[in-house]
Amino acid sequence: MEDELELIKNLYDMARGSTFEAQDHLIDETALGCFQEKECEKFVNHYDELIHQLNKLLKSIS
């Protein structure tokens, strides 16, 4: 059980890091136009949802 919890925590940390990178990327890309901005926004939303689901999972097993 501890190994599974550690794996979930690592996935959570990776997802959070990816979200922050994506948000930085979104800021950089806004100068290039609406298409890139919308694509980056989808990417950020995907990782926000992943973090939300991992949070729910962590709470359910803690």
What this model shows, in words?
The chain has one domain. It is built from two helices and no strands. It has helices at residues 2-29, 34-61. Helix 1 packs antiparallel against helix 2 (34-61). The N and C termini lie close together (10 Å).
Give the SSE layout.
Layout lengths: L1 H28 L4 H28 L1
Helix pairs in contact: 1-2
In a few lines, what is going on in this structure?
The protein is mainly alpha-helical and 62 residues long.
Which short descriptors sum up this protein?
62 residues; mainly alpha
Low-pLDDT runs? none
End-to-end distance, in Å? 10 Å
Estimated share of beta-strand residues? under 5%
Quaternary state of the chains: single chain
Shape: elongated
Structural class: mainly alpha
**Roughly what percent helix?**
over 70%
Order of helices and strands: HH
Number of domains: 1
Largest sheet: none
Please report the number of helical segments: 2
Give the mean pLDDT: 69
Radius of gyration: 14 Å
The count of DSSP E runs of length 2 or more, i.e. the number of strands, is: 0
